[in-house]
Structure formats: C-alpha cells, structure tokens
Specification:
Strand order of the largest sheet: 1-2-3-7-4-6-5
CATH superfamily of the largest domain: Metalloenzyme, LuxS/M16 peptidase-like
Number of domains: 2
Shape: globular
Largest sheet: 7 strands, mixed
C-alpha cells in the first residue's frame, strides 16, 4: 500500500468556535481573493465579499490504493467508540446507456438482498451489533452504501461490504430482480407520478436534459426501462461498474490504523481487480432557448419552477452560484421569501437550489402560490426578484448571512461520522471531494472560495447562468387531470 496524502484537522473545537463567532455577528476572516472585492451600498452599488469567521476546518485523512484498484480513505477520530464505513461506487445515471435508465438505483436495492457468504442476513447482522445510519443512496454520478458500527465490530461491516462487492452475482436471480424491480416502480409512483408536483418535477428534468442525455428523467429511471431490464442486462451492468477499481472505501472514527489496514487487505484485497471504466466528463452546454411548460395536476395551489443548466461541480462559478442560491432562499431574510411571501404575499413557500454534478449543475428557483394568487402573478414576482439581484446587488449583510449559513451547514454536519444521504458527515465529505476532484482534503479550499464570493460575482453568475432565454419554466396548474403541454416562451 502506498501512502498518497496526509492532512491535519482542527476538529470540533474549530466548529464550536465558528458557531460562537457567527452567533456574535463577527466578521473576522479577510477574504482569500482580494481581487474579487467590490464596493457596496444599499443604493445598488456592488457589495464587498463579506468576510466571515471560517476557522481552519479540515478533516485529517490518509489515502491509498490496494493492488486491485480499490481506493481507501482513512480518517481517525477516537472521541467516540464508533466507526463509519462508507463505500462509493463511481456509477450512476451518468453511466447508463439509452434504454437502461434506473440501473444504478435498481442496484442500490439489489445490494441489500444478500450475497454469497452473508446471505440475506445483512440487516439482521448489523442490527444485532447496534449499527446505525445503515442506508444506500443513488445520485446522478455515484451510488453509495454506508453504516456506522461500534469500533469492535468494524470487521463485520468490512466483511459485509466486501462480500456484496465481490459475490453479489452469486445470489441474484430472476425472482430477486422481479421483486426489487416492483419495489422501485412503486417508489417511483410514490415519489413522482402520484406525488404533488411530482409530474412537474419530471417535466422540468426531462426538458432540461432531453432523451439521450445521461441525466434525462429521474435518477430512479423510467417505468419502460425498468420493465425491460433483463437478468442478463443487470448482470452485465454489475460486472462493468461494481469492482474494486471503480469503488472507494472510507473509514471515519475510532479505529487502529494498522489493524484497519490489515482488515481491509483481508476482506477486499483478494477481490478480483478489473480495469476502471472511463468516466464521462464532457460538460453539458446551457440551453439554447427558453422553454415554457404548463402541467395540469390535481393540486390546490399553483407553482412556478425555473431550471437552468449551470457549469459542473467544483468549476470556478460553483461557489458563486451556491452563494446566490443562499441569497435567494433558505431563510426569512432572503430575497425570495422577503419579497414574495412577506411583502407581496404572492407565495406560500419559496426555494432555490444548486445540484452540482459531473456533467452539469442544475440550478433551480421555485415558488408555490399563495391562496388566490395566479401563476402569472407568481411568475412575474420571481422575475422581479431575479432582475433585482442585477439592479441591486446583494448587500454586505446579505452576503454575510448567505455565507454564514453555508459554512454553518458544512461545519455542523462534520459533527457526524456518516451524514444522511452519505454525502455529508466526515466520511461523506471526504468521499464527495475525492469523487469529483480526486482530493479528499479540498474542504478548506472550497470554504475559502465561498468566503471570496463578491456581490459582483453574484451579479455575473445571474447574468451568465440564470438568463431568461436559457431556462425551462414549468407552471403547475391546479386541475382534475394530469397532462403537460409546451408553450412558446
């Protein structure tokens, strides 16, 4: 095993310091990019990048690879007698060929149905030793599996994860495939077809990423493709992507590094190595024209949602877009909430988010109409708020609130070893940065980039990436029937 990287950690004391400073309204950290500063006033001049108190938060890690290609990341913290185990397979819808959508998510379910040596006792074994945070999730670019166990039961978790990595195909048969296929179909119905605003969400995704694009449709896959999946298709997909060379194992918590490395070699080192499949990395260009859809749904309140294709994860404008979304929504002092909910009373709720992925980020802004308000009024209100970000850039106070919320979200989830969804907590944070950048220790650089965002950066990304003529607009209209039609913008 070859040691590649070591890092240092200020720990939870740094997080506590951040919370204390932020609660006191302190602005202690000078931004790391002085050239990005701009002058500000509430009269519409550009605000400076608000300096916020970011301690030197980082997570110590050791990264190495086994001869069969498995990447391993270790983060030791003996403060609690627990160890988080996190396995990321670098496969998601981004890897699915046309007509095979939903395979990665289907395997998320199949991976819990048993393997050669563990059998079907996966949950029983983990529950018997007091494991927590046992789950698996699928995103556009990866699938993960994770659990947190008492430190004395680390070997049990490693055995289970290695057995389903190496010996899942020994037990998959048509019956198990059919059962899990039906489970996934039902999950899709509950999440989309029969969920309020679910059809509208699908219409937004399908229009942003047309048929043939890996992100077309939901992560869960289409009913047609799930129905068509054969046992041979599923087997071929597993052999292509579920191998040590296409996976990363992360341990976070109280373990002896020497013993842990020996166990990792014991359980994973003997698995067959296969070449790592190539990753798709070509960025998706923004939309060439505006598209507007009206979706009729059996809901009581209208809703308007905008979607844009933005640059991929961790490209230079990613921090500015994150800050922009935090300026727009996420609290009572944000622009969308203040304008649409409080002042104009057009909306009952508002949201803004950035989903950053390998081929493209998905920027979205939406609002649900207040009772008695029309979708036209709501759409005009959202447009006024977006235009206002350009005409009246964020103030220093707005920037500081947005950045503080981002940093507090990041720092508070570092109190967990495994966070919900497997992308937060210390294990998830190390995994995500390693997946997209090959650098598990990128967190301090990312926080510095967030701190450096200026009001002019916000104005620039709104103009460049959130333009009216490059977005999908989905209007959800209350109706007794469900259908969608495309209108000319």
């Amino acid at each position: 095993m070859v040691l590649a990287v070591k890092n240092t950690f200020r720990g939870l004391a740094a997080v506590a310091s951040l919370v204390a400073h932020a609660g006191a309204g302190s602005v202690a950290l000078a931004q790391s990019n002085p050239g990005a500063q701009a002058k500000a006033s509430s009269a519409g001049e550009a605000a400076p990048a608000a300096a916020i108190p970011i301690p030197a938060i980082s997570v110590p890690f050791e990264k190495f690879a086994l001869p069969n290609g498995l990447t391993v990341i270790l983060h030791r913290d003996p403060s609690l007698p627990l160890v988080a185990v996190s396995v990321w397979y670098h496969v998601g819808p981004v890897n699915e060929p046309p007509g095979r959508s939903g395979f990665a998510h289907l395997f998320e379910h199949l991976m819990f149905t048993g393997s050669r040596h563990v059998g079907r006792e996966f949950d029983t074994l983990l529950e018997s030793v007091g494991a927590t945070s046992v789950n698996g999730t699928t995103s556009w670019d990866r699938t993960n599996y994770f659990e947190t166990v008492p430190r004395e039961h680390l070997d049990l978790a490693l055995w289970i994860e290695s057995d389903r990595m190496g010996f899942l195909l020994d037990v998959i048969d048509q019956e198990r495939l059919d059962v899990q296929r039906d489970v996934v179909k039902n999950e899709r119905r509950q999440s989309y077809e029969n969920a309020p605003y679910g059809p509208s969400s699908l219409a937004l995704l399908d229009t942003m990423f047309p048929a043939g694009h890996p992100y077309h449709g939901a992560v869960i896959g289409s009913m047609k493709d799930l129905t068509a999946a054969s046992l041979a298709d599923v087997t071929d997909f597993f052999r292509a992507y579920y191998s040590p060379a296409n996976a990363t194992l992360c341990l976070a918590g109280d373990f002896d590094p020497v013993a842990a490395k020996s166990s990792i070699q014991k359980y994973f080192g003997t698995l067959t190595g296969r070449a790592r499949p190539p990753r798709k990395s070509k960025a998706t260009p923004p939309l060439k024209k505006a598209v507007r859809l009206v979706v009729d749904e059996p809901v009581e309140l209208s809703r308007v949602a905008y979607g844009w294709i933005a640059p991929p994860a961790y490209t230079p404008d990613d921090p500015a877009l994150d800050v922009t979304m935090a300026v727009l929504a996420g609290g009572r002092a944000t622009r969308l909430y203040r304008k649409l909910v409080v002042e104009e009373k057009l909306a009952s709720d508002v949201d803004a988010s950035l989903d950053s992925n390998a081929l493209a980020s998905m920027a979205s802004v939406g609002a649900t109409a207040a009772s008695g308000k029309t979708p036209e009024q709501l759409e005009q209100g959202i447009d006024r708020v977006l235009a206002g970000l350009i005409e009246n850039p964020p103030t220093a106070a707005e920037l500081m609130r947005a950045k503080r919320r981002i940093v507090l979200d990041v720092s508070s989830n570092l109190e967990l070893l495994n966070g919900p969804g497997g992308e937060s907590g210390r294990a998830g944070t190390l995994q995500r940065f390693d997946h997209y950048l090959g650098d598990p220790g990128y967190l301090p650089k990312w926080l510095a980039a967030v701190a450096a965002v200026s009001a002019q950066d916000v104005v620039r990304v709104v103009k460049q990436h959130l333009a009216n003529d490059a977005r999908v607009t989905v209007v959800t209209r209350p109706s007794a029937t469900k259908n969608a039609k495309q209108e000319q913008p």
